[in-house]
Amino acid sequence: MLDDAPHSLGTGDSLLAIDGLRVEFRTEAGWTPVVTDAHLDLAPGGTRALVGESGSGKTVTALAVLGLLPKHNSRVAAGSIEFGGDELLGKSERQMQRIRGREIAMIFQEPMTSLNPVFTVGEQIAETVRIHRGTTRKRAWARAVEVLDLVGIPAAARRAKDYPHSFSGGMRQRAMIAMSIACEPKLLIADEPTTALDVTVQAGILALLRRLRSELGTAVLLVTHDLGVVADFCDEVTVMYAGEPVETGPVGPLFADPLHPYTSGLLASLPQRIAPGDDLVAIPGMVPRPEQMPVGCRFAPRCTHARAGVCDGDHPPLVPMGGDRSTRCVRVVGGDVTDLLPPLSARAVPARRAEPLEAADPTDTGTPNTTTPDSTETRA
């Protein structure tokens, strides 16, 4: 464990446990934190979502687990990432290579940029099997065909000989999933696996992931902005904003009664919650740049419930609230939850925008978020 890691919020029986993670990027101003005080627990065979707007630190957190952050301009400054009780931070590149693909696999957001165009799909999957299982080429090829068939590629034996460009978008995504599960990893990190797919293909991908979880016992960490997918697929959710988790908990209670105004704003923006003919609800402003974080609560400049002298004071910690839930809202922690937001379950449709509890200027004070950790989409 690195220095300065705070106390753990974990359960003690986690497959993946992130505690006090702090990731910094090198900028013109020096080392700038882009993820701070990140906590996450994922049980064996469980499913947890990382949600939030672009720039919230979701992808950076996921890449830190696999040690795939760029070495030249990023570093993990504090915290711990344990996998099966084994600390991942501090491991050498050779040690991480033995873990990637065999113990932890990742589905990247755009499969066409992850699949090599000069090798057949089957060759790329078979190579993963040969590296991590040390098997023969014949057996590795058979395994490639087997997993392509498992993920629903028709005529898998024949299509394994095709190159990525001959696959549709949905089929390439399935091929990436096949490559990820070829060695039956314990943890699958899926970074926006259904982005840019039509609803039919999206439903097929989610059904496949659900089946893999059931048959192989694979735990899934889903990085997404799609709350509908989270509600349909995940057991637990971590809501991130401006590089830190602001609320965590089981999906059902969190969706029904959010504790943090940011979570409530995200849920209120779902089209399914808007009455016919009404306008979509949007959170005003943008996620602040890492080098321009506001004092106190980072969401306060966009929050219509912020109070001067309360929300712009000390930076609020992530505090357990019971029932496996936690939040970073100082007013909720202080017992003001009944005045904050009514439960979403009590409303047929979300309110347009609750009136401020005190006179407050909801005008966005942020600047255009042109360079953020998530929007950069750093890849290995």
From TrEMBL:
Biased composition (Low complexity): 362-380
Pfam families: ABC_tran (PF00005), oligo_HPY (PF08352)
Domain ABC transporter residues, every copy: 18-267
Localization per record: Cell membrane
Entry-linked SMART domains: AAA
Disordered: region residues: 344-380
An annotated Gene Ontology molecular function: ATP binding
UniProt main location, coarse: membrane
Bilayer topology term: Peripheral membrane protein
CDD domains associated with the record: ABC_NikE_OppD_transporters
Protein name, UniProt field: ABC transporter ATP-binding protein
Organism of origin: Rhodococcoides kroppenstedtii
Lineage: Bacteria, Bacillati, Actinomycetota, Actinomycetes, Mycobacteriales
